[in-house]
Amino acid sequence: MVKNNLSWMIGGPALSGGVNTSSEVFAKACVRAGLYVFSNIEYHSNIMGRHINYRVRTSDRPVHSHVESIDLLLALDAETLLGTDPHQDYQRHGGHLHRVAPGGVVVVDTAAKVDRDAITRDDIHVLELAYDDLVQEAVEGMGQEYNARRHNVMRNMVPIAASCALLGFDVANVVAVVAERLPTRHQAMVEFNRAVLERAAKATHEAHADNGFHVSLEEQPDRKKHMLIKGVDAVGIAKLHAGCVFQTYYPIAPASDESVMLEQHQGDYPIVVLQAEDEIASMNMAVGAAHAGVRASTSTAGPGFSLMAEGIGFASITEAPGPVVVLWQRGGPSTGLPTRQAQQDLRFALQPAHGEFPHMVVAPGDARDAARMTHMAFNWGDRYQMPVVVIADKFIANSLVTEDGLGLEELPIDRGEIWSNGSNGQGSYRRHALTESGISPRALFGTPGGAFVTTSDEHTERGRIDEQVENRMAQMEKRMGKLDLALQEISDEWQYELIGPREAEISVVGWGSTRGPIIDALHVLKSEHKISANFLQIKMLRPFPTKAVSEFLASATRAVVLEDNYMSQLGMLIAEQTGIQLHRQALKYDGRPFSEDEVVEALTTHHTSDAGRLVLSHP
Helix/strand/coil (H, E, C) string of 422-477? Predict the structure, then answer.
């Protein structure tokens, strides 16, 4: 019997099947019971109706990624098991039956009319339950007349109850979450949900009594204080904590969820969230707000970032204090894979507009990382007076993970050098004054004597258009020099992180969301394969920590770069900045995130052979 180490999946049609609600209720119930949880969603880019699946992984130790095999598969329709019709030539997939581990259980609704002859595996158990009938029995057992339109909303409690019964998990944990989710006016439905859960759990025991199950979940009462949070929510919270008062956006997956979250709370916090007419306007509004003296931000995905390019250059040449741009990557190019995972925008983020100009690019690795780096991005934007791109992705955006906290409390607020008449010297204000550091003190709107002009043309210290040679060189050197200053001043913890022993048999270099599966894989490599491995997570990509990365790679026995893209874009950046080419690569570009298993496969392969370019995919 395996305790608390579960890989669980539910699948069905989008919006109408209750997949999201079921999975998030189950995940939160596990967290309430003191378990560590990681959960991620995969869905097609249709408005509604196509297949969606949600994974939940639980453990006694922190987990940050999924595994390929599934112990318990809840199928709300036949497509979840067997995939799309062989003759269908759009939005195809092969189902998930092949992922079920030997001894695993498939729970299916009898109404799904699954062809049992099509399930040829004899090493798994298939449990069929009549979802609607069980809901009706539970409602009538409460002394109420059954109404399908009203009560069938609870049918998604049936597979959750079956999970609880198989796992020996108290349904009271689920009831508590349901009570939290339901608004006050619907609290009467809590007991109806309890009745459905108990009736379905009983039916599961009766139907599966002779078979047993190889995984159990046990409550850990000493560990009940974790939060369960998505990356989009963590970033939204960080923006509020950092004092962002103006957020712009144009709807686009997977970025929209962050702005929608902030919209829901703008009545409670001093922030205005504005949906603009397009991404061009979103960017320029944010730049204007930053010049006005407030902390401003915008969020988008790759196609929207393409439209923001000129605005980023405008922010940089006019030395705006920001804005912070959160780039939630997805599969490209063009529309590409709107709802799928990728790390394909790194090179674009490093040079998003024409010309040479300073801006910062930082890449968090998980929800907590994303919150902390977003907070600091506002400080860096104010301090160095340049736009800051926080480059994340769909995996971080939509995954749920348990965290002890976001670590925002101890982070400072740094508004940079503020000009006032007298404190920064006498005479008329020069917005782009040439200073030893390259930073020109900025005057907030309304500061006496602080009126200024600036322009997207090359300009003088006073912001007047000027193309004189000496001035051009002085202003270019002033602006670009701020990148060197940032690299000197920003502490190492924000530039990179070494995880694992200093000396190791194999070293992996990565950025962004590969952090989670790599950390999980390090544990497996050590405990199951007796391989010592370490991981260098590069967090700051512009300016680049050349010295630290060079020293790490020079001492590495075997170094592997691992990325969610085709070109090994981090590998290219490392070669550009250090002169070191990483020929051992582990790449994935199928629109899905790395799993723990794939990272283990990649690193064990590179440990024992000179595999060179290794491509991972497990359809």
Answer: ECCECCCCCCCCCCCCCCCCECCCCCCCCCCCCCCCCECCCCCECCCHHHHHHHHH
pTM score of the predicted model: 0.96
Tokens representing residue 81 in the block: 């098991």
What 3 state SS string does 245-269 have? EEEEECCCCCCHHHHHHHHHHCCCC
Six-digit token pair at 434? 């040439």
Start-to-end Cα distance in the chain: 29
Which residue, among 327, 367, 369, has the nearest Cα to 348 in the 3D structure? 327
C-alpha 427/C-alpha 424 separation (Å) is 9
Query: Phi and psi at residue 614, in whole multiples of 5°?
Result: -115, 125
- Do the beta carbons of residue 73 and residue 11 sit within 8 Å? yes
Peptide bond into 501 cis (omega under 30): no
Phi, psi of 262 (to 5 degrees): -65, -35
Lowest mean pLDDT among 185-194, 375-384, 467-476: 185-194
- Helix (H) and strand (E) counts for the chain? 20, 23
User: ω before 543 within 30° of 0 (cis)?
Assistant: yes
pLDDT attached to residue 212: 86
Instruction: Quote the tokens at residue 65.
Output: 């990624």
Strand 400-403 to strand 540-542: parallel, antiparallel, or no bridges (unpaired)? unpaired
**DSSP three-state, residue 507:** strand
419 class by beta-carbon count within 10 Å (0-12 exposed, 13-18 middle, 19+ buried): buried
Q: pLDDT, tens digit, for every residue of 379-403?
A: 999 999 999 999 999 999 999 999 9
> What gap in Å lies between CA 517 and CA 303, rounded to an integer?
27
For residue 30, count CB atoms less than 10 angstroms from its CB and return exposed for 0-12, middle for 13-18, buried for 19 or more: buried
- Cα-Cα-Cα-Cα torsion 137, 140, 142, 144, nearest 10 degrees, comes to 150
Distance CA 314, CA 359 (A): 11
242-257, pLDDT tens digit by residue?
999 999 999 999 999 9
Q: What is the mean pLDDT of residues 270-280?
A: 98
Distance CA 42, CA 91 (A): 13
Q: How far apart (Å, rounded) are the C-alpha atoms in residues 335 and 359? A: 26
CA 545 to each of CA 25, 487, 572: distance values in angstroms, whole numbers, following the listed order:
42, 7, 15
d(CA 459, CA 475): 8
